[in-house]
Specification:
Radius of gyration: 21 Å
Mean pLDDT: 89
Number of helices: 0
Strand content: over 45%
Distance between the termini: 52 Å
Oligomer: single chain
Structural class: mainly beta
Shape: globular
Helix content: under 10%
Length: 391
């Protein structure tokens, strides 16, 4: 088999020809870089309205209490920044922060903050940042109990949210108000990369979809049991192996929620609520971000492309940005993407680049803010507030 810029041949017979828009320029004698959108081509300058230094490069961003934003850093520090204020450190873990989250836990009136760290702890903070409870994540038999990922789930169908934490030791835990464990689920397939909640089976309670680093996308019932038996959702260890992001939503409008994930196999995977693969769609490289929106499924790739895919796996558009993508977020009217060369770009729902700004370093994390703006955490340890024209 021969793969060239023009197409694919098997034993000298052409089985696939790439059109001009699909040509693999990287295989040409002189590879062509993707065009970089420039001002004057409908691309307006966005602006940096505020910036500050974090204690270390951020590992995660998330919405916080009372309109604030939360950050976690490589050195184990974590804190929040008000909409118009400077970052305020809330604490220091003994290792990097895996994830950070905020919500009204167990029906309480006030929001709480959750911090999962690679020091094998889960910290529960009050909205003012004072520590309320610390949970030592139990050791596993395979890997350290790093706190890698967080979500909140309505496990009883009564609106009360329970903390769910994924770990490096092949486990997912549901945490009780007293800091105990309601249940522990064993993925049987290595470190957890992401957890997300949604009612998959229609019982009125949330199930948990799980990303891992080793071929599998398990799902967990509200009672901590396996939702589908095939750990690899009937794909017999051919997918992934790394699934960095998982999302839940009714993407095809059939009234049932699906699990959508991206793998290091360069594919977007859509899995039905029974654990069966519905479709896959190639994005050409490993993913740097995944967003579900009303317009479709947006995925950014390390090739430097942003793809929008519909609910049945058909690509709606692809936008080439000329530099590897590193972060993706949804904003009003479209998407924001950070790329390796330091640009942050606003795309509309049709995939056209409408605005950009140079952040001075690669953006590793993005968080949407009111008015179409974003918070951007850069690889050199800064936190920037960015706004598009007219914001």
């Amino acid at each position: 088999m021969t793969v060239s810029a023009a197409g694919v041949e098997i034993d000298g017979r052409s089985v696939c020809e790439f059109g001009a828009e699909e040509a693999l320029s990287c295989l040409e004698a002189a590879p062509r870089p993707a065009p970089v959108p420039a001002h004057g081509d409908g691309v307006a300058p966005a602006k940096i309205v505020a910036q500050t230094s974090l204690p270390a490069p951020a590992t995660c961003l998330g919405p916080g209490p009372d309109g604030a934003a939360l950050f976690g850093c490589e050195d184990g520090s974590f804190g929040l920044v008000a909409a118009d204020g400077e970052p305020r450190e809330l604490g220091q873990a003994e290792d990097r922060i895996g994830d950070i989250a905020c919500g009204r836990l167990f029906g309480e009136e006030r929001e709480s903050i959750l911090v999962a760290s690679y020091d094998a702890t889960l910290r529960w903070l009050e909205a003012d940042g004072s520590e309320r409870l610390r949970v030592d994540l139990p050791p596993g038999t395979h890997m350290p109990s790093w706190g890698t990922s967080l979500c909140l789930a309505d496990l009883d169908g009564d609106g009360r949210l329970w903390p769910i934490v994924g770990t490096g030791s092949w486990t997912v835990h549901a945490v009780t108000p007293e800091g105990g464990l309601r249940w522990t689920f064993h993925t049987a397939a290595h470190t957890v990369t992401d957890v997300t909640a949604g009612d998959l089976n229609g019982d009125g309670r949330d199930e948990i979809a799980v990303g891992t680093v080793y071929y599998c996308v398990p799902a967990i019932t509200a009672d901590g049991e396996r939702l589908w038996e095939d750990e690899d959702y009937n794909d017999f260890w051919n997918a992934g192996p790394i699934f960095p992001s998982v999302r839940v939503g009714d993407v095809d409008g059939d009234g049932e929620r699906e699990v959508v994930t991206v793998g290091s196999d360069a594919l977007v995977h859509c899995i039905d609520r029974r654990g069966v693969k519905k479709w896959t769609c190639s994005i050409g490289d490993e993913a740097a971000g995944l967003v579900l929106s009303a317009a479709g499924i947006a995925a950014a790739s390390l090739t430097g492309d942003v793809h929008l895919v519909d609910g049945v796996g058909r690509r709606i558009w692809r936008t080439r940005l000329g530099s590897p993508c590193r972060a993706l977020a949804a904003v009003d009217g479209g998407y924001v993407v950070g790329v390796e060369d330091g640009r942050v770009l606003w795309l509309d729902e049709g995939g056209a680049v409408r605005a950009d700004v140079q952040a001075g370093a690669a953006c590793r994390h993005l968080l949407s803010a009111p008015g179409g703006g974003v918070l951007a955490a850069t690889a050199d340890g800064r936190l920037l507030r960015l706004e598009p024209p007219g914001a």
